[in-house]
Structure formats: C-alpha cells, structure tokens
Write a structure and sequence with these properties.
CATH architecture of the largest domain: Orthogonal Bundle
CATH superfamily of the largest domain: Ribosome-recycling factor
Structural class: alpha+beta
Helix content: 55-70%
Radius of gyration: 22 Å
Number of helices: 4
Number of strands: 6
Strand content: 5-15%
Order of helices and strands: HEEEEHEEHH
Largest sheet: 4 strands, antiparallel
CATH class of the largest domain: Mainly Alpha
Length: about 190
C-alpha cells in the first residue's frame, strides 16, 4: 500500500481526499434524517420494487413539497402508486401516505419531543461514526509517513511536518463534522 506514496504531499493528498469523502457521506446521511419540515430527501433511501428491480422513488415519480408539512409524489406510471405507498410505509419513517389514484400525499406530522430526542441520538451516532472514519484516515496517513521515514524516502523534518499537517487536517474535518451535526440537531429540535 505504501508503495504508491513517494512523498509527504502524496500522503496528504490521499488523506484529504478520504476525509472529504467522509464529510460528503455525513452530509448525505444527514439529508435523509427527518426533521419537522417536509423534505423530499427523506425518501433518498426508500426503494420500490419496480418489476423486480429495487428502484429509488425519485426515479419513478416527481416529488414536490407544496407546503411546509406536505410532500406529494406523482408517479410517472400510475400502476406503481400502491407499490410506492407500500415502500414508504415499509421504510418506517413515521409517515402515513395516502393516494387518490393519481398522486400520493404524505403529510409530515410535527415530531414529538420524544421522537426528536430519538432522532438527535441517532444523529450523534452517525456523526461519531464519521469522526472515527476521519481519525482512521489520520492513522493510515501517519503510518505511511512513518514508513516513508523508515525507508529514508523523506527526512525526519518532513515526517514531523507531515504529521503536524495531518493532525491539522484531521482537526479541521472533525470541526466540519461537528458543525454539520450541530446544525442538523438544531433543525431537529426546533419546534
């Protein structure tokens, strides 16, 4: 694995790319967490059995938020309306869809205090998983730097500078994760 890294810059570039990926993954995960406001992204992980293929809802229908507490889903193929409704119920999002034969209306109820706390707890777990991922990237980068130093590819000063840079990068990404998590938590706890 270390053979691909010839310099401190290679190690740092790889670490930065992997930390960026962890942050992007966190942001994607947070967008699927339900808050009190209607958002079509709550359906990002919901798949519908479309003629034997598990297909995301947004590939089968138009999703709209006509008002703060309502999501409408208009299937392109109305024969799939019941399958879409069934998939939403099966996803256990705490939503109760209803249809009129052409369109599915999904009222988004205000969250109870208990449910808000449950969601916030789940959110903190997701954020911690991503902090751990960033720390694992730091550990890998540090191992690569130590190996380059041991193989005499880089000097002790370069290794020290690389370790410091990796730590700064780690601190920066963990701070970004915390900011994203805090913002989402605030959104969840807002009534």
């Amino acid at each position: 694995m270390s053979d691909q890294f010839k310099s401190v810059k290679d190690v740092e570039a790889n670490a930065k790319a992997r930390m960026e990926k962890a942050l992007a993954d966190l942001q994607q995960n947070l967008s699927t967490i339900r808050t009190g406001r209607a958002s079509v992204s709550v359906f990002d992980n919901v798949k519908v059995d479309y003629y034997g293929t598990m297909t995301p809802i947004n590939q089968l229908a138009n999703l709209h938020v006509p008002e703060a507490q309502l999501i409408t889903i208009q299937p392109w193929d109305v024969s799939q309306i019941n399958a879409i409704e069934k998939a939403i119920k099966a996803a256990e999002l705490g939503l109760n869809p209803s249809n009129d034969g052409k369109i599915i209306r999904v009222p988004v109820p205000a969250l109870t205090e208990e449910r808000r706390k449950e969601i916030a707890k789940k959110l903190l777990g997701i954020a911690e998983d991503h902090r751990v991922a960033v720390r694992n990237v730091r550990r890998d980068a540090n191992d690569h730097l130590k190996k380059l130093m041991k193989d005499k590819t880089i000097s002790e000063d370069e290794e020290r500078r690389g370790l410091e840079e990796t730590q700064k990068m780690t601190d920066g990404y963990i701070a970004k994760i915390d900011v994203n998590a805090k913002a989402k938590e605030k959104e969840i706890m807002a009534i």
